[in-house]
């Protein structure tokens, strides 16, 4: 009993130090790196605040050795809000306020500090940028009435965090990679060239989107569900002014530049697209949204792809065709670009250790995701990998959500 009490006391003391010492890195309960939150104290003066007015934040683990002057920034994902009601409710939880966020975040996958788990970026300065605006870090307006005040300031949050990181070493970067997952992956399309412009001209800067290639495609009911959602988001959060001017001036519907397939041709920085051809989020919310399946015909198929009937599989192959068509020009003509499009039912593969780099990680042409990204970033080999159609890939980690 005395030994048990002593071990409990030690464990509690370590946990208490982790809570109190915000600058330290703690491994609590296992060997996973957990990195403390840094609030951007000067952000309020720039009007760069979360939906509820709280300060924005990031988690930084400093690089070492050969990676001491290299930087990897990872946008957190987490969907969007496109109405006052949904944004208000978002402001009351962790996706809209740093008040409700975990103070320590596990760094795994592309953020891991272990060479065995993250061979090319493990010793870089690695930053997780917390997501609290609901518009992929692209809005710049606000709403206020007698009872509610909401700040749509994602664009300012982005700039405030970069300004906070520049004197910490980002301003002396020799190599840099801007990445993100889901809504964070979409954010890389908006900020890639801007990121490059703020770093030394001698730096090697590249960008990657993981599960952020959201398609402008009709759903199974032939409605533009995704387009309607994003158009209302752009209007509410004042996003259009943050979209690429070359793209918006070239399109009859400027709001379409929120979609990567229209924004990508105007990005000058080398770019990598990591996506599945059957993205689980888009499958559930954009391609077969609940409004198109009131009778529940797709319910089992959404839970387990092996339960999809032949007609549903044919429809999903049509979705894959739209994905490949949207990236065809990039695949064919981009000399600096890379891609890894596998035929798994998943969403976000760089932030999960099992899918990023592990013994049984998904492969395309016998290449893991981390290997493809590394080959592309360091110009070791051509990295444009496209999988055969479902169900040919037996290496998938299917995660229907």
UniProtKB/TrEMBL annotation:
This is Pectin acetylesterase. Residues 1-27 form the signal peptide. The lineage of its organism: Eukaryota, Viridiplantae, Streptophyta, Embryophyta, Tracheophyta. Its EC number is 3.1.1.-. InterPro entries: PAE/NOTUM. GO terms for biological process: cell wall organization. It is an enzyme of class 3 (hydrolase). Keywords: Cell wall, Cell wall biogenesis/degradation, Hydrolase, Secreted, Signal. GO terms for molecular function: hydrolase activity. The keyword Transport does not apply. Transmembrane segments: none annotated. Pfam families: PAE. Hydrolyzes acetyl esters in homogalacturonan regions of pectin. In type I primary cell wall, galacturonic acid residues of pectin can be acetylated at the O-2 and O-3 positions. Decreasing the degree of acetylation of pectin gels in vitro alters their physical properties. Belongs to the pectinacetylesterase family.
